[in-house]
Amino acid sequence: MGNFVSFSISVDEFVPPFLRYLCCNNLEDNLDALTHKIQDLQEMRDDLLRWVSKEEDSRLQMLSEVNQWFSRVGEVESRANRLLEERFLVIGRLSMYGYCSLLSASTYRYSEKVSETLEQVKTLKWERVFEVVSEKAPRMESRPTFYQPVGSREELFKTTWAHLMDEHVGTLGIYGMGGVGKTTLLAQINNKFSELGDDLFVLIYVVVASNEAENIQDEIGSRLGLQWERETKMEKAVEIFNVLKRNRFVLLLDDIGRKVDLAEIGVPYPQRENGCKIVFTSRSREACQRMMVDAEVEVKCLVPNEAWDLFKEIVGEIALASHPDIAELARIVAVKCFGLPLALRVIGNFMSTKRTVQEWRHAIYLLNSNKAEFCGVEDRIIPILKLSYDTLPSEKIKSCFIYCALFPQGFVIRKQDLVKYWVGERLISHEFKGYEIIGYLVRASLLIEDGSGYGVQMHELVREMALWIASVFGTQIEHRFVVLAGVGLKEMPKLKHWSMVKRVSLTSNQLQNITDSPDCSELTTLFLQDNNLKSIVGSFFRSMGSLVVLDLSRNPGLTELPEEVSMLVALRYLSLLGTGIKDLPHGLLNLTQLIHLDLESTPNLGSISLISGLLKLQVLRFYDSAAALDTSLLEELERLKHLGFLTITVREIDVLKAFLGSKLAGCTQGLYLQGLRVSGVSFAATFGALGGLHKLEMVNCDIIESDTYWEAKRRHQDFPSTSSNQITQSSPWFKNLLTVELFSCKGLRDLTWLIFAENLESLSIALSHNLEELISETKAVGVRVEPFQKLQVLRLEYLDALKSIYWSPLSFPRLKKLVIKNCRNLHKLPLNSTSVAIIYDLHMEVEKEWLEEVEWENGAKERFLPVIRTASVSQLHPV
């Protein structure tokens, strides 16, 4: 002991007695408090990161103050961990001396650091009060191309681009009649700027649904990530101006109808010095003149020879050669399309299946008979397009097509949503038929499929045609369809004859409180999604006895439904997705016809047990909801004989086991697990049996997978070959799994079971600190399947132990987004020069420091560097 004390004296100075007393009395208490407080802070950090990750999946970016909080948490966490690691050494030294008998200066300094760190932890916990964590980021958007440029169209683009590259041209107007190809030309401009890279420009593409300044402000603000509630038009203009004046921007405005006052909106006028550009399209040349553009370009109809070439290409040689007279009849049809590319494509697609002279003559007859009392060429196109509607094979398909006009102009409609609406409206009896109809309408060019394959939209002129038909061929008989979608409404529209309205779409507006009580006895569809709804008066529902579809989704401020919802006795489809609803009203039990109930992403929702009384329910969604499955609810759901589609939330291991053994497992497409602790399981054996599972998300789960399953498979060589058929016929192989999201799953060491999710499209993993490999080479021995062939999105964040994604380069033929953050031990990616075929479709986001140390396969660095976006560790999402 004496030698030990003598050693201490030679190194440290001693601390005065009064400080020694205070330090000894507080040190252990502070260490205990630091242990618990840092755990609390880590949990807060994890919860916040999950929130941010979900927002980023929706193309939002983290606020700088949130990012700074994350950085400070990381610094304090590292400091706290070092102090706690020294705890036993310091306490052991104190006990060896005898508490409070002798204290070295180094121990005193240690105690001071503990106190300081504890205060910093407390401060960070107090500061973590964020009502908003993200904002919409300025981003490039690839707009759909409605047809391939032909003939003079290539020269038109070259001329237009030359204008834009002229330093004296800051504003460019593109004008021409509807359907002539203005939007396609604007899309080419957008794509050309995209190829130049977002380091040069902030690129903003806005489809102008309304020419009101405030509506355009909202669209631009949305692209810039500005968060608005009650700001005035002037306040919005100031915010837009302050953002754009600091950036070199390109603003593309599609389809303006009259003069747009840039100053009123807040857009700085392009100057030669700042290099900014504004391009807009309009049907009117006068709009260009009123805007005083620096240059203008007219998009004209195709000349006869080009129009015939395009029409002939679309119809195809087989149809044209079916009879000697058809070619001449086809020329007559092409002439009646007035050289409009849209009309040529729509009518050409329709006629491509016609093989008899009689069919071609009948088409000419219909084109002539569809002529109405229209003045201009542009107006006459709508009844010409109606030919494609008139000849749709059934009234059912016609009704489904018209339904698509309920959505805002330029809006991408998710196919699965569209099919659900159709089923709810009884337009179709089964979902499979819905997807078949969508495919038919796409092939007929009446709908346009988006790049992902999951959504469709309408060309503006086709939508006008559909609304014209919906209003009884333009006679506007008391607004059978009321479509005021995305036009900036702040209150319900005032209509004289609500009683005659069939369908109403008020989606994507700014409605807050509904106090009206209209007589809507004929109303069957009501769209109120994507507003700012806070309340709905009960009397609003009293005269809606025919309503079958009600969509209130994505109104987070809506916390309750009035009991008068019980008056909706015909309702079949109800969506409360993304609302703040707290309880389901008892009046819901009166909705005996309800077949589809969506309660997903409802963070405040309590019990949903009363839905057991909805005996006709076929679809129930409560994925990522505060309401979770329990044994009682499980039994109630099993008694619903017609339930065939389910997404659920589970938070208890006993409930999960019971669920997996129930008949509900077979119809479950979405599974959200939270807070589960279990060991010795096999993912393949446990979840692979959920044959219909499309989405799996696990949050705060501590699941330790057993290696026994893999060892048994290797011994019996019971792995599928590269034959896709063999995989899909085997069980369990996760053949339908599309999306996997894992947050704070601490027990996971690898995710080798994903090798059999052959259709996986999106994989997001964060805060799983024990995860070392995505696919384990040891476990996967004998597996002859290349993973991730359909993967489009891969996000890896805060994975301290991750060392490998895959042990050799892989092919990622569909990869579009790769994000890697805070994976400090991941030094190599499974990418070589041929891993991704179309490199400019890929978005990569990594840290600058990580990129400097990553190891590349030969040729990979040169290939991927052009599409990588970097940020420093301390500023992952710069504005």
From TrEMBL:
InterPro entries: AAA+_ATPase (IPR003593), LRR_R13L4/SHOC2-like (IPR055414), NB-ARC (IPR002182), Plant_NBS-LRR (IPR050905). GO terms for biological process: defense response. Transmembrane segments: none annotated. The lineage of its organism: Eukaryota, Viridiplantae, Streptophyta, Embryophyta, Tracheophyta. This is NB-ARC. Keywords: Plant defense, Repeat. It comes from the Eukaryota. Residues 168-302 form the AAA+ ATPase domain.
